[in-house]
Amino acid sequence: MSTNESQSLIKTPKQLIIVGLLGILVPVLGAVMVAYFVVTSSKKPDSEHSSMAAEDMARRIKPVADVVIAEPDAGGAKAMKSGEEIYKTVCLACHGSGAAGAPKFGDKAAWSKLIAQGQKTMVANGMKGVRAMPPRGGAADLSDIEFERAVVYMANTAGGSFKEPALPKDKAAK
Ligand code: HEC
Asked: How many whole angstroms separate alpha carbon 92 and alpha carbon 87?
């Protein structure tokens, strides 16, 4: 007769714990499923009988459609930043404090001489760099229009009346 053979399936304390946990979890899950079924099945007749079902559905899927429609706009806005945004992310580093002799943001005396050169010259100088001013403020990924917008933003804050650059018709973004 073998003493190894046990009639119980539970042989170790670990198995006992697992069986104990399952004993709790299974009824709980069962109760949750029943509750879920009751809730969902009680809702169903409502929406089936309602003539609003289709409208309801349309309303529910609408936000998704809105997002899809809005995407090209959002992408365009993201691809092309405003002068203020570019100033804050790139130019502020030097022009905010006047570091390295940069004309300080809003300093009318410092900017007036530059503004007198005209928008075209100022943009051209900034794009190729002038003394301690790195080309495009060091942000080589800025498009011409984005850079010009930042120049216009800074110049106009310091009393200039530069014009926003027009968007090129052949390339709407960038
Ligand atoms: C690393 C520092 C630094 C950053 C970043 C920077 N600038 Fe400058 N910028 C300067 C300095 C210094 C000068 C003054 C150069 C000089 O005349 O000696 C200057 C001058 C200029 C001028 C005058 C050019 C002229 O006609 O003489 C413009 C326009 C200008 N910056 C635009 C910008 C714009 C737009 C940005 C952001 C996209 C920017 N800068 C970012 C340092 C910087």
From this structure: 6
Ligand 1 geometric centre to CA of 134 (Å): 7
List all residues whose CB is within 6 A of at least one atom of ligand 1: 86, 90-91, 93-95, 100-103, 114, 117, 122, 125-126, 130-134, 136-139, 147, 150-151, 154
Angstrom distance (rounded) from CA 75 to CA 60: 25
pLDDT digits 0-9 by tens, 111-131: 999 999 999 999 999 999 999
Atom of ligand 1 nearest to the CA of 132: 12
Residue 135 near residue 70, CB atoms below 8 Å: no
Residues in the chain: 174
Task: Collect contacts of 121-127 with beta carbons under 8 A, ≥24 apart.
Answer: 122/151, 122/155, 123/147, 123/148, 123/151, 126/151
Q: How far apart are CA 92 and CA 119, in angstroms?
A: 19
CA distance 57 to 15: 49
pLDDT tens readout for residues 32-70: 999 988 888 766 555 555 556 777 777 777 665 555 544
